[in-house]
Queue: 4 jobs
Job 1
Amino acid sequence: MPAGIKGKYHYLYLILDLFSRKIIAWEVYEKEYASRLVRRAIMSENRTKDKRPLVLHSDNGSPMKGATLLETLITLGVMPSNSRPRVSNDNAYAESIFRTLKYRPGYPRKGFATIEDARKWVLGFAPLV
């Protein structure tokens, strides 16, 4: 998500259940902190002791393949899954929700002045349960 300064961005991480299309958790950070959100999402869904397998599918971005996130996934018993290189339709559901977010009325084309402004805007789009 663009910040008010050219070249600066806020990072929106969103976890979507592909079967129900439910937004499990989201957070906006100034830096790339995917592992924090994954841990919070699994705890909020009460899946810490669940024996059913969980899979986290993501793009091939560096935060999603980083050692910190991979260690978190292993600790929580979540199997990582990544998109195939140069295949844009592996994340169709995730990409469509981000497109919906960006084309909603009121989305600030010039960016969010603060990270709190970005969080408030996303909260209006996807209220936390």
Job 2
Amino acid sequence: MASILLIEDDRTIQMALEFALTRAGYEVSVASDGDAGLEAAKDCDPDLILLDVLLPKRSGLDIARALRAGESSTPIIMLTALDQEADKIAGLDAGADDYVTKPFSTAELLARVRAHLRRARIKDDPPPIIETGALRIDTRAARVLKSGQPVRLRNKEYDLLVALASREGSLCTRPWLSERVWGETFLPTSRTLDTHVRRVRRAIDGDGWTYIHTERGMGYRFEATREGGDRS
């Protein structure tokens, strides 16, 4: 049973999420302020942390920074009422892996939780087979099929697709993708990532499906959706 630490001071949200997470089969610990949350994160060693940004005593950003400074790799999903791009970027820069803006759908949050727990289990090794929508990716044979037909990709395009698909449903930041695929520090002026994303989209989209969705100013999210969703 995966363990989740919920750090949230709003009692109504806290109770609703604790109920939903417990019902979904997770072991849930709760903290109501920043100091208690940081101590619980260190003592309990949870599998995932749901972290409110605006907390008494210590902010969620401070907690994330402290955990990453201590070399914790526990997935952190920020819960934030701040929906400006700069606020979201601040959370990611502090060490969060993802964010959900209040008010949010409990079903969406649970899907994000599942995605990050899957990624934590497989660590850096992609699963041997990734199947979603009309795509089938065989990472052992470096082979991609769309509706059963081979997809031709260049080496870096394939690496980019696997990096994104291995974190299905999760935000992949531009710096993370740059480091993962090219082994380079991300440069905001570089268009290499965007160019490769366009090429991969052209190769894999179709048959009623789109896969790579833009998170403006931050990165991309891989999720099989019926065509017509935002992917600017």
Job 3
Amino acid sequence: MADPRIIAVDLDDKTIIWRNADVEQERRIAIFDLLEGNHFHPQRDYPQGYAGPYRIRLRVEEGRLAIDISSADGQLLETLILGLARFRRPIKDYFAICDSYYQAIRQATPQQIETVDMARRGIHNEAADLLMERLRGKIDVDFDTARRLFTLICVLHIRG
């Protein structure tokens, strides 16, 4: 019976060189929300017809995103490699708007915070659409899963 969902997420700590409290909070929320509800259906046939649930490990390797997909018992099923060139701009824009958002939370009016948050969500949504497009034919994900995965991809790109 198919169970196309993620049950565990691991980020390669060697890839993440710098974190602050805001980043840690984003990471925790993204992982929690992802595990609470997601759709993750690799399009490749696995041995013995395995169809989920999945454990994933995200890492950046030589400028590419590596997604290790494993079975529930931890057996590696495949590693999917995605070029990140098309994500450079969305990641940069997302970092910039998140910085503005965190500053606004500390010192702006509610209306200013809402404006920055709307812009942040817009960038995040566009990046999720891009991720869904890049995964097409490899892994079927829903929009919310793509949004949360993009957040985690951003965490992997944080530099001090």
Job 4
Amino acid sequence: MDVIFNCPHCEQELEVDSSGAGTQIECPSCGESIVIPAPDSAKIKSAPAPVLPPRMDGGQPMNPISSSAAAKEDKHFSVPLRSVPTEQLIEKPLPPLEVAARESDKIMRIKTIRHTDCVEVGHDRFDEMVTGFLSKIGEANLVSINTLSYTHLDVGTQKLITDYGVMIVYKG
């Protein structure tokens, strides 16, 4: 039988054979001299009867790990207690843009302004139209401005012409 007791100096849990009762030893944790208590004043632990797992046809245990020495070892774990809640390690992810757009009071909108649509009688008004539209929606509602490059067929010359424009994403 084994005697289980705590060191009076460091509270380390120790386990000694009951035949060593009354013997003075040094604590392996703190190094102080302690006397092994008698079995009646400490917890007594008797060796448990081995439990064999069911056997297969070949006489081998079904799970060899369950009959190993590591599986029979008693483990004394303590759960740490905290007076304050632990910090949150996993933050909630942001909602997808589609969900955010549905839940907001304003919906997402897109405005495309092509350069060819802004040319009138030789006057290029592209910058004026983009500036006017941006000032109308306001900076707070602006989500993004993306440049575009595209090709279109010129009706007069029957040639492909490469041009540019902008795509404005905003809340409206």
